Amino acid sequence: MIKNFTSNNINKDKKLLFSFVNAELKETKTRCNIYQGNFYLDSFAYFLINEDFKSFDNLYVRDKNLNFEHFFSKVFFNNFKKKLDNFKEFKNIFVLGSNAGNNYYSNLLQFLPRIFFIKEKNIRIAIHRNSSLKFREFIKNVLNEKSIKCSFVYLDDGFYKFKNCSMPQFFSLTQSIKILQKVIKVKNFKSPDTKIYVSRASASYRKIINEADILPILRSKGYKVINPELYTIDEQIRIFSQADKIISPHGSNLSNIIFCKPGTEILEILPTLNKMSDSLFEDKFRNIARINKLNYHRIISDSVNIDNHSEVTKMYIQNKTLYESNYYKNLIVKVSDIKNLI
Asked: What predicted TM-score, i.e. pTM, was given to this entire model?
């Protein structure tokens, strides 16, 4: 069976203790435990299991909303042992990882902060093959600022064995925000566009289907309409850092509010969340706004069914959830609600 080890267990086990390197980020005085050696993990949960079948859920649970109980079941352990010899093996790499569905919130706030603990000047980094070119370029730009050269190896869906590799721990939301705010350099410029509306016109779901009705109203009040798909991550960060007011349907591009000035007004458009599992997403950006001292409001909108979801969406979200949950539908927002709040 897989055994879970806490920080106290690690400190009492000399072999385990020597498997971890403790690194510090001077800018934030944040410490990071980095496992170095041989281990297994899959490219979705990134839950590290070492060769002695020990795991560390206080360090390697990237999302508290994910269920990790199955890793400790007898059924999982028996299947895991049978397949060990068939896992593809990587050697001498830094396992950063990235979201299997290329979710920007997860990539930015769960995976990226760990990259700032790299000490080598030339390194190979493991990320998921589905990660966007935009995210890969951003990683390279971030490391270039630290005079680090990198190349990528790509993970597909499944389990892997890593030999003589490194993997840093995951951080809490508050820690991640602190790291990103301190380390990512936002280039100084003065933008005339201080009011922003973020469109999801290119998204697979949660698009505002009556957007044409509200855009003239927003533009008449001085809002610039942006589609983040058309901007690099660096450009998105600069836009959000300059904004005084931001209106957006719920979506991962709102993760950029971590770079907003304190007091920035955020208006999030949400559906009525009708499933217990949806509640995990409800306060995602309100929590960031609270941590970042932003002025947060929300509009609850009506939901509209989607007849056919994208193949990527269907790959990672259960079919029943897709067609029952309002979270994976499109939105209709009341024009009067927008008028009243702007």
From this structure: 0.93
